[in-house]
Design a protein that fits this description.
This is TIGR02281 family clan AA aspartic protease. The longest helix is centred in the first third of the chain and has 13 residues. Helix content is 19%, strand content 42%. Strand 3 and strand 4 form a beta hairpin. The protein is of the alpha+beta class. It has one domain: Cathepsin D, subunit A, domain 1 (Beta Barrel). The protein is globular.
Length: 165
């Protein structure tokens, strides 16, 4: 489990560089569309347009509380900053931070948790594995593979990420 957490955070550190790499591989792409809100197109489908940096950011609800999440297919699990976890009703004590995770800023303690309810538009996921990191180590919530694996499928079509439950 610790190895997976270390891998997740190592991959998270690479996320900001991905758009630059992709930009050099996609000839003729000089401009990215302005960010748009995620659009639910059916009872169980969510379309998320890429933002100006090429990232997919979507509004979500964690245990009924609004959260903005960056979709990160390189993250093994959903990751939340501690302040977001607290707002979502996850009461964590110092002794709950039992996992060590490697980040760009060094190794930090993380608390493994299970999210009872994660909503992405009309998509509802239950019992999603996640980790909580100190705010200084994680500035934005990450929608990782522990949530994406629970979907029927997800794919990128042009500048849009499509989630289907």
């Amino acid at each position: 489990m610790v190895r997976y957490l270390l891998l997740v955070l190592a991959l998270v550190a690479l996320v900001p560089f991905v758009p630059k790499w992709v930009e050099t591989w996609v000839p003729g792409q000089t401009e990215t569309a302005a960010p748009q809100a995620a659009v639910s197109t059916s009872a169980r489908t969510l379309k998320i347009p890429a933002d100006s940096s090429g990232h997919f950011v979507t509004p979500a609800e964690v245990n009924g509380k609004d959260v903005e999440m960056l979709v990160d297919t390189g993250a093994t699990v959903v990751a939340l900053p501690q302040s977001v976890a607290r707002r979502a009703g996850l009461s964590l004590r110092k002794e709950d931070f039992t996992a060590s995770v490697a980040t760009a800023n060094g190794t930090v303690a993380a608390a493994p948790v299970v999210l009872k309810d994660l909503r992405l538009g009309a998509i509802r996921l239950s019992e999603v594995e996640a980790i909580v990191l100190p705010d200084a180590s994680l500035s934005k919530s990450l929608l990782g593979m522990s949530a994406l694996r629970k979907l029927e499928r997800f794919d990128i079509s042009g500048d849009t990420l499509v989630l289907v439950q």
